[in-house]
Amino acid sequence: MPMPEPAGARRSPLLWVPTGYFTMALGYTMLCSVTAIMFKNLGMDNGRAAAYSSMLILAYTIKPLFAPIVEMYRTKKFFVLCAQLLIGLGFAGAGLAMGLPDYMTVMLPLFWLMSFIGATQDIASDGVYVTSLDSRAQSLYCGVQSLSWNIGPIVASGFLVYLSGRLHADVFHHDPRVFGPAWMDAWRVIFFIVAGITLAMALWHTRFMPEGARAAHTPADMKGAGRILRDAFVTFFQKPGVWKMVAFAFLFRLSIGFLEKIGPFFMVDAAARGGLGLSNEQLGIVYGTYGLAAVLVGSLLGGWFVARRGLQRTLFLLCCAVNIPNLTFLVMSMVLPSSLLAITAGVVIEKFFFGFGSVGFMIYLMQELAPGPYATTHYAFGTGLMGLCGMVTGVLSGHLQEMMGYVPYFVFVMVATIPSFLACWFAPFHHGDGGAAEPSAPPPAALAAGTGRD
């Protein structure tokens, strides 16, 4: 149970839960998704743009390894504020670095460092949520937490990508159809905007975010942290059917990993290169607004569907929902529709069913992989495997697409769904059919933060 704070220090969770999770999502989406669009705008080929952006996922994948260190020193709020301050300064620094002759040699290491700071912010913010709220409050504000996280990608991938296009064409008067260094003017402004938002959130949280209590069994030193982490690894691999669960965690979203970076590239590439030739403004509306809204609606309906039918009975259907609608990108690459309505419909269909089916992945981790004495850490291992899959597929995706072209590549994406189906079919169940997790598992709200990110 969290330690109570003095009465005068208590603040309504509505003052810090929405802003805390929105800030986390904004930084993560800017680093791991929006940078790919920026690299593409600056004239990078698909291989490098996808690889550079995907490698920034590493820090979020391995964050369970340094999570005990965050528990050991100062307060969780201290780490949140420091992380938000440094991330804000980092985005401002990236904007300034774009004025240098060899700006990529500065910007890429800066983004790499910011990804580790962002992962630390995630750990500390989740810690504030779990230790400052009792179980009832965690459940009460779980929906607010998830919704706030999902607003972050809509702002970053939707509004800010849209704004970059408007700035490029209307303010700086550059040709939006030409990729190259001229795009630096618009993206510099975007980075300054993100820096301002992040620093403003840090200032807000200085006043309204609680300190966060120390968790039970917090390690006192590095030796203790290493012992706990080692024991968590050992007990993880002692679970029955663990390798089938590992295969499930890594492979369930394999085809999505190959599609995630290439989908937006396909949207903005010129028709001569096999793309749809959308502008950044259109991409922000179609992919970053309607598409992400479809993910959110699909996630809500997917959760309702699993709650009514049970996970074991629905898991394979959810796997179909994630993988089969990828066919829409293959169809669009063959037809090359010019109607924005048709393109939007294709994206919304794929994103809706992705959100609907991905719920099964998260619930499986909660109910089958996580239960035990280190439930939160084991859940983090599962999401880490998912992140590792996203990083590996993202690094490879751009190079494969350039070798194949868009139509053969989207055929390859459909072939990549086969391992997902096999991993899902053989996924073991040891804790009932969609029932509640064992008492040793973390409260649902503590895990829900993972449903919208990584």
UniProtKB/TrEMBL annotation:
UniProt-annotated location(s): Membrane
Keyword line: Membrane, Transmembrane, Transmembrane helix, Transport
A Pfam short name: MFS_1
Region annotation (Disordered) ranges: 435-454
Membrane topology: Multi-pass membrane protein
SUPFAM superfamilies from the UniProt entry: MFS general substrate transporter
Ranges of residues in domain Major facilitator superfamily (MFS) profile: 13-431
Taxonomic superkingdom: Bacteria
Main location: membrane
Record-linked InterPro entries: AmpG_permease/AT-1, MFS, MFS_dom, MFS_trans_sf
Transmembrane segments: 21-43, 78-97, 140-163, 186-204, 246-267, 287-307, 378-400, 406-427
Gene3D superfamilies (alphabetical): MFS general substrate transporter like domains (1.20.1250.20)
PROSITE patterns: MFS
Protein name: MFS transporter
Protein's organism: Massilia aerilata
